[in-house]
Amino acid sequence: MASYATKLLLASLGIACISCSYADLVSDVCARSRVASSCNKVLRTNPSSIRARDLSSLGSAAIDSAHGFTKSAQSMASSLSKTSNDPGLKSCIDNFREAIANLNECRSSLTKKDKSSLNIKASAAYTNVDTCKEEYNAPANLKNEIQNVIDTCSAILALSNML
């Protein structure tokens, strides 16, 4: 009987240790990003990121988040462009479109486990959006969405280096 109890205890501890290693996957990735606190904030807003049990599923969730933030920023910029002729704003809209295309390629790279391509495309999306941040004095809500894209792309870059 003691042998069975010992085996059960060891099996339970093993499962607990596996669960512990997964529980902090977001923190592990974010510790390698540009700003860990911002990375944690944006990734933890997506339930799929919190439930991720491996780098591929976390990468997929991060790409989905970055895509959503970019689409939101693009929509805000498009609305603003209806009442503004600011060339910086028009440039932002183009940059958001390019960022979305790069993020779509990130999905393909992640599926293929092509670390190099994932890194290049995430970096390109980051640069697209960062260029907008530098060239256009956006209103606060758009600035916030731009920063969310940048923070999420930073997480994808960190993750690509861990694959």
Automatic annotation (TrEMBL):
It comes from the Eukaryota. GO terms for molecular function: pectinesterase inhibitor activity. InterPro entries: Invertase/methylesterase_inhib (IPR035513), PCW_Enzyme_Inhibitor (IPR052421), Pectinesterase_inhib_dom (IPR006501), PMEI_plant (IPR034086). Residues 1-23 form the signal peptide. SMART domains: PMEI (SM00856). Keywords: Disulfide bond, Signal. Residues 21-159 form the Pectinesterase inhibitor domain. Pfam families: PMEI. CDD domains: PMEI. Belongs to the PMEI family. This is Pectinesterase inhibitor domain-containing protein. It comes from Lithospermum erythrorhizon (Purple gromwell).
